[in-house]
Amino acid sequence: MNYETVIGLEVHAELSTASKIYCGCPNEFGGETNTHCCPICTGMPGVLPVLNKKVVDYAIKAGLATNCEITKIGKQDRKNYFYPDLPKAYQTSQFDLPICKNGHVDIEVNGVKKTIGITRIHIEEDAGKLLHDASGGNTLVDYNRCGVPLIEIVSEPDMRSPEEAREFLETLKSILEYTGVSDCKMQEGSLRCDVNVSIRPVGQKEFGTRTEMKNVNSFRAAFRAIEYEVKRQTIELEMGNLITQETRRWDDEKSASYSMRSKEEAHDYRYFPEPDLVTIAIDDAWVAAVKETLPELPNARKERYIKEFNLSEYDASQITSSIHLANFLENCVALGANAKSVNNWILSDISRLVNEKNLEQSEIPFTPEQLAKLIKLIEDGTISNTAGKKVVEELFENPRDPEIIVKEKGLVQISDEGALLKIVTEIIENNPQSVADYKAGKDKAIGFLVGQTMRATKGQGNPQLLNKLVKEELDKR
Amino acid sequence: MELYKLTAHELSSMLHKKEVTSVEITKSVLERIENVEKSVEGYITLTPEFALETAQAVDNKISKNQDLMPLEGIPMAIKDNICTNGIKTTCASKILENFVPPYDAFVTSKLKGINAPIIGKLNMDEFAMGSSNENSYFKKTKNPYDLNRVPGGSSGGSAASVSSDMAVYSLGSDTGGSIRQPASFCGVVGMKPTYGMVSRYGLIAFASSLDQIGSLTKDVTDCALVLNTITGHDALDSTSVKITPPDYTKALENNVKGLKIGVPEEYLGDGINSSVKNAILKAIEVYAKLGATVEYFTMSASRYALPAYYIISSAEASSNLARYDGIKYGYRTDNFKDLNDLYKQTRSEGFGAEVKRRIMLGTYALSSGYYDAYYKKAQQVRTVIRNDFENAFNKFDVILTPTAPTTAFKIGEKTTDPLQMYLEDICTVSINIAGLPAMSIPCGFDEIGLPIGMQLIGKAFDETTILKAGYTFEQNTDFHKVRPGL
User: Is the Cα dihedral A152, A274, A86, B200 positive or negative?
Assistant: First the structure.
């Protein structure tokens, strides 16, 4: 039987506020264990939370950027459960009155446009981290992350393939980055997601039984976890079994998921209104003030790049998917570089190296000035495109003025026609067979001869010039 | 002269006139503790060094002719659920037996700000759950009027220490009557201010939407002075109101002419002990003679107040007390198999029976499938009770009721029947549910000489009117001058 996949996502994003959600502790990643905490975020007896207004600002911002309605009255609730990383034994979250609801995000997969609904966006606090001390067999707790503000974005079950889920995540990430709501550093865990998957026979209206997958720490993991889960559920159904509603844990190393708890074992979180906090009243003026701060969003920027920079729709959408890459491009263009060339460099060599070196897109180690200069060196013929690739690699290793790199590495292109001609004549004389081939109409021989001259110049010969000279010399014979 | 017998305002004026030093007063109170604490057992922790150091600092100010604030240098004590930096704060629980907070409660900072010589931390029912102080893990505080009887609760230590002159005044907390009922049992003045008037920061939570810090004093004048010290906005408590409190001593006026007093009939019906009822009727006569108008009325929703209170308070408590899990601070069991067992054993061993009962009650009330029938329904009752009071205060300036249905009962008398114990709160819980201010003041004695208290309830943020009514009653009666014969 053919099945249709149904996917819904719950995305947690850590907000980029300066301080935590209910106390004045710094909201910074890392730090020595248990140094970014105080009696409030560690849930000492008698302390009280005070909501950081910026957290609501950021949630509203995320809501506006995803076409949500903003609530007039928001409420915070306690979600009760015991775990050592949760010192109060409840997480302050939102139950029935989230800050935002009923929004949507537009995605495009293989040229097909689609709208994915956003059910809600609510604010909540993060928990600490458990550290397992391998030698002593003890578990230690780091409370630094306790009280770091989060938004949870819950999507409608509108996605039908792992590709759509990945595209939704990419789009959401770029929106959160553009708005400055979250830095979305996956490696630091500032963006995490839970994946809900079910399958149903094609044509059936009712949803199948879904499972929820936790511990999905990258978009790649989300993609693979969904693929795995669809396969697993298909096999179960094909074997005549029922799908159990359960929470599963994704193990990325083993590329498999394992059952954590069934519906019967699910926690009863006993949500109830947080009595230590007052209701959040959001008036039109507040929403309007946040709206003022909304920057140009990815889609708008894409359209502008197509118009202003003459980029293709594909290129524009690629480069604008990351605010860091898009800003890098704009900075280069502002320095006089050609947008298309910059775009090509960023999307090809630079993106490849960012990935290879496990960097975030915000962590390109060199400046737009340096890239702009490199492009200029290529355009004025000082170096070849191939040499340019070497310079980019060097910029990742030890960023400095490309001119200096070119000199140090001897990458300057030879455009002296006299010098090149000498080499060309020599190569042609040493390869009579190729000359004969050319005369016999085999144009391929030119390529071989140009290649030989390039080798003889150690790759520094100006390729256009070499090409021209080889052709001229051959035609003379 | 036996300085410890005096009120705070009497001592304060002597200090200002340099007739006495703060160290002399503090030593007098410490000597009194030396003599009667073994009978009353009001304190969990004593901090005489801190008290004397502070008193000395005040005396140094006096010798330099620096101005003193009211209540500066007057020794006092604090209920052991209010955090004191560097001083154990146990909530009378095994689970916090050795807990020393690294921070002060808002009120503690305020008291330190007026150089209050803090003598110690007072006994209470564990986590403020109880009406007799019999739920303390450490000791049973006795009623100074009869050592075989309870002082009331949960602020039993706070009431008994003031009643027996072991503190000039004290702070307590009131979630459903925990200041007023012991004040009534021990013959002192107990004030629960409007919810939001005193910051809860540093008060170890029992039921956050009901808890309120207040005072226990020897008379109404002292009550006004303490209110002046502890009220005011606190940015660290989201439920703290942003209003500038008035000078409460301005309310101390001997005049109730034209004051409209309402008496809800339900509070004088079945279940109210006859001597309590008689004392209240006499108090009503006093007010009538002084020119107040007194009118009876009905508050039909009040019978739902007690069940609603026990559901809301237990639900919040079940969550507030979840943090005592043996992980970060407090008691941890020695024997456990795994994480769940660590939680289970720690909490089984660390909490007393009443606390466990409330945690289970509250957990049940919040459970999926029962939430609507219990917690949600109780919140609806809360709205109805608030409206009832609002309507009543359209007609009246003050509502007058007994504080407790009985006088102090014998130790052990009600411990076997929790429901009997819960009925002790029948006159007081609605006030917390509605978030209103209320004060208990002495208004008589029963046939065996035990104190009776009357409760004066005011509009939200109108502590002034009940202070005025209470002060006038005091000026025209002598009940507040009686002290137990210890």
Answer: positive
Distance, in Å, from the CA atom of A404 to the CA atom of B474, rounded to the nearest integer, reads 93
Per-residue confidence (pLDDT) for residue A385, from 0 to 100: 86
E strands, A15-127, are 69-70, 73-74, 77-80, 90-93, 100-109, 112-125
Looking at residue A446, its pLDDT comes to 85
Q: Tell me, yes or no, if A22 comes closer than 8 A to chain B by beta carbon.
A: no
Q: Which of A408, A429, A453 is the last residue of a domain?
A: A408
User: In the prediction, which pLDDT does B47 show?
Assistant: 98
For the stretch A111-161, pLDDT in tens is 899 999 999 999 999 999 999 877 777 899 999 999 999 999 999 999 999
Using CA atoms, how far apart are residues A74 and A177, in angstroms rounded to an integer?
Answer: 25
Cβ <8 Å between B319 and A278: no
Q: How far apart are CA A329 and CA A371, in angstroms?
A: 10
The CATH number given to whatever domain includes residue A426 is 1.10.10.410
**Is B64 considered catalytic here?**
no
Q: What is the pLDDT of residues B238-249, one digit of tens each?
A: 999 999 999 999
Interface contact B103-A275, CB threshold 8 A: no
Is any Cβ of chain B less than 8 angstroms from the Cβ of A74? no
Percent residues over pLDDT 90 in chain B: 95
Contact B204 A46 (CB under 8 A): yes
- Asked if B366 lies within 8 A of A82 by C-beta distance, the reply is no
What pLDDT is attached to residue A444? 83
Of B82, B101, B318, the CB nearest to A44: B101
Q: Are A92 and A74 in contact (CB under 8 A)?
A: no
Please report residues of B whose CB lies closer than 8 A to that of A88: 322-323
Burial of A390 (0-12, 13-18, 19+ CB in 10 A): middle
Between A and B, how many residue pairs show a Cβ–Cβ distance under 8 A?
Answer: 96
Q: Is B178 a catalytic residue?
A: yes
Reported as type and span, the H/E element at residue B9 is helix B8-16
* B368 contacts A45? CB cut-off 8 A: no
Q: Output b/e per residue, B104-142; b: 16+ Cβ within 10 A.
A: bbbbbebbeebbbbbbbbbbbbbbbbbbbbbbbbbbbbb
Please report residues of A whose CB lies closer than 8 A to that of B316: 272, 275
Cα distance between residue B73 and residue B58, in whole Å: 6
Chain B nearest C-alpha distance from A278 (Å): 7
Check if B373 contacts A (Cβ < 8 Å).
no
The two structure tokens encoding residue A273: 């209104």
Q: What is the rounded average pLDDT of the residues A223-247?
A: 95
3-state DSSP assignment of residue B368: coil
Which residue of chain A is at minimal alpha-carbon distance from B204? A46
Pair A335, A437 in one domain: no
Q: Looking at the complex, report in whole angstroms how far the Cα of residue B324 sits from the nearest Cα belonging to chain A.
A: 8
CB contact under 8 A, B316 and A88: no
User: If you average pLDDT over every residue of chain B, what do you get?
Assistant: 97
Same domain, A269 and A386: no
Residue B271 has pLDDT above 90, yes or no: no
Question: How many separate domains does chain A show?
Answer: 3
CB A124 within 8 A of CB A95: no
The conformation of residue B138, written as its DSSP 8-state character, comes to S
Question: Which domains can be identified in chain B, with CATH numbers?
Answer: 3-254+438-481 (3.90.1300.10)
- Provide the shortest C-alpha distance from residue B68 to chain A (in Å): 31
Is B371 close to A272, i.e. CB distance below 8 A? yes
CA–CA separation, A112 and A102 (whole Å): 23
Check the CA dihedral B387-B392-B397-B399 and report its sign: negative
For residue B323, give the nearest of A48, A89, A275 by CB distance.
Answer: A89
Does the ipTM surpass 0.85?
yes
One domain, residues A365 and A231: no
